Amino acid sequence: MSLSSLSLFPATRAQVIESRRRSFKDWGRSYMTEETYLRRDADMDNDEHASNRKLTTWVLCSREDPESLEFKCSCETFLRRGLVLGRNSAQLDNNAPEQVSCYAIASVFTPERFRRRGHAKHMMRLLHWVLAPPSSLPSTFPEAWGLPPERPPWLAHGRFSALWSDVGHFYGSCGPSTTDAEGWVVRDAISTVWDVGSGDTDVDVGRGWKWLSASDVETLLSIDEQRIKVDMAATALASDAGETFFTFLPGQGVEKFQRRRLEHVWGKFKSVEYWGVVCESTEPGKTTATLDENTAMATWTFEMKTPTLVVTRLRAGKEKFVDLLSVLKFVARKHGMEKIEIWNLPEAHKGIAQDHGAVHMEREEHLSAFKWNGAEAPANVVWLNNEKFCWC
């Protein structure tokens, strides 16, 4: 079957279920039954990060039978909120980040019987033609691919998109044209990891520290988003001319996804009461509601393949980081975790982390990669807050 006979379509409900049945065999079998896997995903379809058409499943399927269950491959996209700010921005307020629509891409899957035929690559190339603004696409659609995919009228254009690759730099070759370029660029796929030894499971968190329940985390992240805007403006102001910055925002269920997807796993272990911690500023008049530069916070989830406390969102100055690390080690030990992992720890903290037993490493999976849908060269685009909270 030629590539021109295939196109990209939003999945029907039957195709969504079929795509999940397929991926279960590779991604879910070790952790749960197929019934549990399908029920979990169906339940999460109603969560804030996915509801109201924010989640779309796409299939590469025959143009003649677009609702067929014999589609070649599939993927998911999540519409999200992000911020963008250029060093020489033409915005009315040059220091104010612009809130934009953007996408996180997940669950790229081809069943064994359809692999090694270029189907996944073609699907990802076509994806640009439905997600990206027309101004960022080539002037003509490749003739060899037939007609371009029909773009649903309700679908927002994304200023940028990101995915987390388990197949190296493959997605870099999946651009919007027939050249093997202009796809998703891997950026800063660095983890900092501590081994958690045995130790005291009691900790004095000290004055000003507060444990966060799941609902507390959601409240704090809405405040954190306002601080992210302030931080981005300050970073852009201090940057080199010509640099452009972007970030995903962690609220509205985005960070929460990291826990929801693994409830079936951590729910079997010791009761988890807290999912974050915050240390308020000691300055007079400052509270958690301000999240100023002296505030430290972390949120987390648990991975069970190798029992690991994974920090999903981190905010901490150097002076509070050691105390925060002690809290993370306490939580990890309490719940039987063997490791702590933080994605893209700030450079200023890396020496401190090493002094306290950390190892910095480039990940071999979940490689963070972005596609910038703008005139700026990717080399001049900076991904801020490239942390675990935005993974999917």
Properties at a glance:
392 residues; alpha+beta; Aminopeptidase; 2 domains; nine-stranded mixed sheet; seven-stranded mixed sheet; 8 helices
Shape: globular
Low-confidence stretches: none
Strand proportion, as a percent range, falls in: 25-35%
**For the report, how would you describe the main beta sheet?**
9 strands, mixed
Task: Please give a quick description of this structure.
Residues 207-392 form the LYC1 C-terminal domain. The chain is α+β, with helices and mostly antiparallel strands and 392 residues long. It has helices at 13-27, 34-44, 119-131, 214-237, 257-260, 263-266, 318-334, 347-355; strands spanning 6-10, 55-62, 73-86, 98-109, 160-165, 185-186, 190-195, 209-212, 244-248, 276-279, 296-303, 308-315, 339-343, 359-362, 367-372, 381-383.
Descriptive overview:
By secondary structure, the chain is of the alpha+beta class. The protein is built from eight helices and 16 strands. Strands 1, 2, 3, 4, 5, 6, 9, 15 and 16 form a nine-stranded mixed sheet that branches. Helix 1 (13-27) crosses helix 2 (34-44). The longest helix has 24 residues, at 214-237. The radius of gyration is 22 Å and the shape is globular. The relative contact order is 0.15.
